[in-house]
Amino acid sequence: MSYPKKQKSISLAWTGASGAPYGLKLLECLLVADYQVFLMISSAARVVLATEEGVQLSANGKKAEQQLLKLFAERAESSLKGSLHVLGKDEWFSPPASGSAAPKQMVICPCSTGTLAAVATGMSNSLLERAADVVIKERGQLILVPRETPFSSIHLEHMLSLSKLGVTIMPAAPGFYHDPKSVQDLVNFMVARILDHLGVEHDLTNRWGYDKYSAEDSNK
Ligand SMILES: Cc1cc2nc3c(=O)[nH]c(=O)nc-3n(C[C@H](O)[C@H](O)[C@H](O)COP(=O)(O)O)c2cc1C
């Protein structure tokens, strides 16, 4: 399998924590922003996606790509410019598997405590875990969006050790100060914060304080 080289590429992983809507929205935004997205999905993530979004994703990567693109087209919120590659857990010859080709940025969203543990201990037992390990060793940008409550000391210790390595830990914890009217507003809040960290432009939420400091005001 050959992958056309694009300027902007990123690895995205969905794992079996609650929060499939975050993962879906993040993928959509990255494709709108013209990214080449290498998507890795754990088996538990497929169960959560079916439970939370009613989407039964095929285990075949090509079919899963078509399903996801069709889903976004039906929602038709924005036009997609990027490209999507859904990778299986043993696709060791794909770009995310090697430091010589892996995207410099990766997000695991949502991130289960199981995958958190695997990444913190360098397990690399699947492509998803290996991809995270590669981003850490290559000193790229890795963002984890864990969801569990309460966190045990095991979870907190894993998060601390990863944070000390430069990994960004962004728990799925949307704020309520922007007057959300729907669940989608809460999802967008979380995804907007992730996109901010990645340096991807978006218009999902208003920027803090900017309604008071518009361009017009600053010229006065
Ligand atoms: C509907 C559903 C919701 C779950 N929610 C969470 C969760 O919020 N956080 C978590 O860490 N695990 C959650 N789990 C359990 C994980 O899916 C499970 O530990 C799994 O082994 C994680 O595997 P993975 O890391 O390979 O995706 C959930 C499972 C299901 C079926």
UniProtKB/TrEMBL annotation:
FMN binds at G16, A17, S18, S42, S112, T113, G114, T115, R147. InterPro entries: Flavin_trans-like, Flavoprotein, UbiX-like. Its EC number is 2.5.1.129. SUPFAM superfamilies: Homo-oligomeric flavin-containing Cys decarboxylases, HFCD. Keywords: Flavoprotein, FMN, Lyase, Prenyltransferase, Transferase. Dimethylallyl phosphate binds at Y177, R193. Pfam families: Flavoprotein. GO terms for molecular function: carboxy-lyase activity; flavin prenyltransferase activity. The keyword Endoplasmic reticulum does not apply. It is an enzyme of class 2 (transferase). It catalyses: dimethylallyl phosphate + FMNH2 = prenylated FMNH2 + phosphate. Residues 8-198 form the Flavoprotein domain. Flavin prenyltransferase that catalyzes the synthesis of the prenylated FMN cofactor (prenyl-FMN) for 4-hydroxy-3-polyprenylbenzoic acid decarboxylase UbiD. The prenyltransferase is metal-independent and links a dimethylallyl moiety from dimethylallyl monophosphate (DMAP) to the flavin N5 and C6 atoms of FMN. Belongs to the UbiX/PAD1 family. HAMAP family: ubiX_pad. This is Flavin prenyltransferase UbiX. It comes from Shewanella benthica KT99.
